[in-house]
Amino acid sequence: MRLLIIEDEPGIAGFLKEGLEEEYFAVDVASDGRTGLDLAMTNEYDLLLVDWMIPGISGIEVCRRLRKEGNDVPIIFLTAKDTIEDVVFGLDAGANDYIRKPFEFEELLARIRVQLRRRGSESSKLSTGELTVDPASHQARCESIDLALTPKEFALLEFLLRNKGRVCTRSRIIEHVWDMHFDSDTSVIDVYINFLRKKLDAAGCRDLIQTIRGVGYIIRDEGGEAQ
Fold first, then answer.
1. Do 143 and 110 share a structural domain?
2. Radius of gyration of the chain measured on its C-alpha atoms
3. How many helices (DSSP H) and strands (DSSP E) are in the chain?
4. Largest CB tally within 10 Å, which of 105, 116, 152, 195?
5. What is the pLDDT of residues 106-151, one digit of tens each?
6. Cα angle 42-152-184, degrees, rounded to a multiple of 5
7. At what positions is 4-aspartylphosphate found (predicted)?
8. Of the residues 104, 119, 134, the one at which a domain ends
9. What confidence tens digit (pLDDT) does each residue in 54-65 have?
10. At 197, which CATH number?
């Protein structure tokens, strides 16, 4: 899953990015409202963390413009404002939630998960055939065997399962799993796909990830030979 942080304080932005990446999110950061708005309008994000007071245009204005364009991405405000009037003002602008500074990272993480569940981006479990993946506990099982996956392997498998039945292009995978842009070298994906296939095959979930030559990869409900 890919998040965007719009925050002008480098210390806070860096702290959030590092913590969220440890939770397997891909994270982009913008230090002003105009850059953040441009990113949010041109890329596909699962959630935005937006500081209220940022240079360029305010977090409130970023939220308003996104909603005006019909963008329903969940938005959580990060704010030092603490009056009921301020909270109502932010929610009326289109925010889904807010958290007051200073805050505990675990509380923010819980609020993020609530928003993702509400949107349907984070279901309790993902499955196909004998494979079951639980994003909440970061566990993957094939039949009765627990898969020992690295964080990137787990994130890649989760992304493919969330898009089950659809071809995942290399550009989408690199953006959502590795937090890189589409023009980056995507050969790392092929390496991790091979890692995943070996572990899945060894556990009995064979031929699950299929290659669409020149495009990307797909997981279907019924396994088949890779092209």
1. no
2. 19
3. 8, 12
4. 116
5. 999 999 988 887 776 545 678 898 899 987 777 899 988 999 998 8
6. 45
7. 51
8. 119
9. 999 999 999 999
10. 1.10.10.10
